[in-house]
Each structure stands twice: as C-alpha cells, then as structure tokens.
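Any chance you could type out some protein's one-letter sequence along with its backbone structure tokens so I can compare the two?
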Amino acid sequence: MHQGNLTSGEDSTQHSGVQFKKELTLLDSTMIVVGSMVGSGIFIVSSDIARTVGCGGYLMLVWLITGMVTVIAALSYGELAGMMPHVGGQYAYLREAYNPLVGFLYGWTLFLVIQTGTIAAVAVAFAKFTAVLIPSMGESNILLSLFGLKISAAQILAIVSVIVLTFVNTRGLREGKIVQDIFTITKVIAVIGLIFLGIFVGRNSAAISANFANFWSGTWTHLTDGKIDLIEPLSGGLILAAMGAAMVGSLFSSDAWNNITFTAGEVVNPKRNIPLSLFLGTLIVTVLYLLANFAYILVLPVVGSQAGSDVLSRGIQFAADNRVGTAAAEMIFGAPAATIMAVLIMISTFGCNNGLILAGARVYYAMARDNVFFRSAGTLNTKAVPGAALVVQGVWASLLCLSGTYGDLLDYVVFAVLIFYILTIAGLFILRKKRPDAERPYKAFGYPVVPALYIFVAAAISIDLLIFKPKYTVSGMIIVLLGIPVYFLWKKLVRRPA
C-alpha cells in the first residue's frame, strides 16, 4: 500500500518554509460545497430533461433521484474525508484504496476534462447571460478567426472571468473564501426568493391543470438539428432509459460537491467539518433544486410547442435558449425578467467558478508532491496557496472555453465523473478491509447497503449514458485510458527525490 504518502498533504510544504493555512470554517466549507454545485444548470437543464421525460412527475423524479444519489455519495465520502483529511481529497482516497496509478488517472481526468471542463462550461454560461445585459458580449459577435476557429466576444469574456478568479485565488485563501461566501449567500437568497415568488405569486392555473392532469404521462421528444424528429410515449423499459439519459443535466448541475475534500489541508477541524459540510451542502442544494423545479411546474406547462409564440405556449420543453429560469421569471415579473435572471445567473456562475478554481488547484498540488504533475505545481507561493497550480489550471480551462459548447462539455464531464465516483465509493469497502484499524471519526451512513445502492444506481446511469449518449461518453472513457501510458511515461521522465 502507498502509505508513505498518507501525510504528504500535511507535511510536504515544510520544505519551502510555507505551509497551508487552516482558515476554512464549517460555514466556509459548506459555502464551497453549495457554491460549487449551484451554477447555471438549475436555470437551464430542466428544459432538456422535460424534452426527454415529457411530464411533471418524471421531471421531479429525475431531480429527486439525482439528489438522493448525491447525498448518499456525500455521506459515504464523509468517512473517507475523516479518515484522510489531507490536501487532494478524492485523489488521495483513490490512491490509497487502489494504487498510485488509479489516483493519477483521476487527477489526469480531473485536469483534462472534469474540473477544467466544468470551469469552462460555467464561464461560457456566465458570458451568455452577461450578453443579455450587454448584447455586444454575445456569441454572435465574432471578434477574430484563427485557423478556422471563430472566437466570439462571449468566449473572450468567459476567459477573462477565469483569469480574474484565478488571480483572486493566487492572492490567498482568505481572499478566495470571502468571494465564495459573499456570492454563495447572495445566490442562495436570490434562488429562495425566486422559488417563493414562483410558488405563491406566479402560479398559473393553465400550467397547473396541464401538468397535474398528465403528471405521469411521459414522452421522449427527439431532436435532430434542433427540430423535432420523433416523439415516443414512455412505457416499460423506455421510462428507465429516458430517465437515465435525462440525468446528464441534473447530475451535472449537482456535481462538484466533492471539491471541499480537495482543500482538506486548509479546513479547521477537517475530521468533523468536511463530513458535516458535505452533508449540509448537498442537502441544501437538493432541497433548493426540488423546490425550484416544483415552482417551474406551477408556473409553466412541462409540454410545449417548438413553434410557440409566447412563454406559456413554449413551456418548459421549448423555453427560449433552454432558459427555463428566465421563462418562469417572465411569468412572474413580465418584461424585466430577462434582466433579473441574467444578473442572478451571473452572480451564481461567478461564485460557482470561484469555488471550482479554488479547490481544483489543490489536487494538482498533491499530484505534484507525488511526482506525477508539473514540479512547479507542488509549491506554495508567498500567500500560502498553490499559485503555479492555479495558473496551469486557468490556462487549460481558458483553452477549453474556445473549444466547445456548454452542452458538449456537460455530456463529456458527467460520464468521467460517474466512473470515479463509483470507484471512490467502492474504495470505501476496500479500505474497510485494507485498514480496519484506521481512525474513522465518522462512518458512512447505512454501510454497506447505502453505499452499495449508490454504486448500483450510478453504474446503471453510466451504462444508460454509454448506450444513449455514446458520442461523448466513449470519448470521456478514452481520455481516462490515455492516462495509463502518460503515467508510466511521466514516472520514467520525472525522477527527483520525494
């Protein structure tokens, strides 16, 4: 077993004379969980889910199952976090449960796709909604073309937002957590306000009648080149297939809760506060997401017409540009809705990316300490944060902003994420056998049944995605496997004292 590295996250900074500062309280940690999870997804992806399941019952069920799966995973991670409260979090758990190669494959995929891809997707969403206020910053404003690649004002703005947040986080943990707390608290209050208004002010009798009369009568609307190709009534096995495919959006919107484990070396009393923040954060977000979708189905009909001339006739399925949140707000506020929602989503995505940028760099730092990432990433700057790791992450995320659409990155990320979540929860069983006497201040809820249930559900969703969304899931799997030769090549080329 790779026990030599168990304390690397705590002791490795001694060489440079600079150490991580333990400044993240339970509130800060919970804000990182909540803030990293809530971006733009909850305001957008219900449109695609509605096209895939076609009724209010299955729409709510998709979000409920996603929430349950997420909370179960967070409760299971709590045991690993209490057992190994070191910098790198999930990377360290996989390394210890399996071997250094599996840990590297996670870090490699995190860097290439999971973390940086999510940062890019959220940054692009930030730019899209900024364009509602400043049209010249939109995707249609092409600033230059390079080698056939058209670069828009929105892409440049997305990159600028990544650069700004990367810079803020290089100035110290205190600066990063202040930004996180302010933006997360602001957006949670705003989302609660929107939910309240939707349920009690904006409710629409026509939408309620249509949705609840056909609450479990689902259909799968297939689009080709943005046009309706086929509408299938859901029954039997097709219901499960549709729900699995629909969960791409809800899982993406509920991801990144594990980011707090990456920062374990900077959390006050990590053995208590990390498991607690994982539970509290995922529970808060799950409740917010369920209430938001309940508000949607009280305000808008789930089933709509692609040729609809107004918000009500387009419904949730065909909300303009998939902006369900904006459509719901329009039913409540009227004309100012687009501006109100644009500001809310800008706040939400900016705060979300701050948490992702802050946490992700800690994994590359831990990898560098294990000699499997760029050497410079394994050092702390004078502000006691991994400045070089932050910069490398920012550069790659910025390049991804130029390379794909929000939807592409969403599909790409989810499959890779699920693979490693399954491996990590399975690692819980392995470590119980490998290290039965290890200190476990918190033990996984419902072990072994509840963690096993997570593995089963996540594996079923993964298989479903492979069948129904092969274009991106297969690519995601190839990226993971490409890490194997890279690992051995890196180990051969990089030889320095541990």
In short: Residues 100-133 form the longest helix (34 residues). The mean pLDDT is 90.
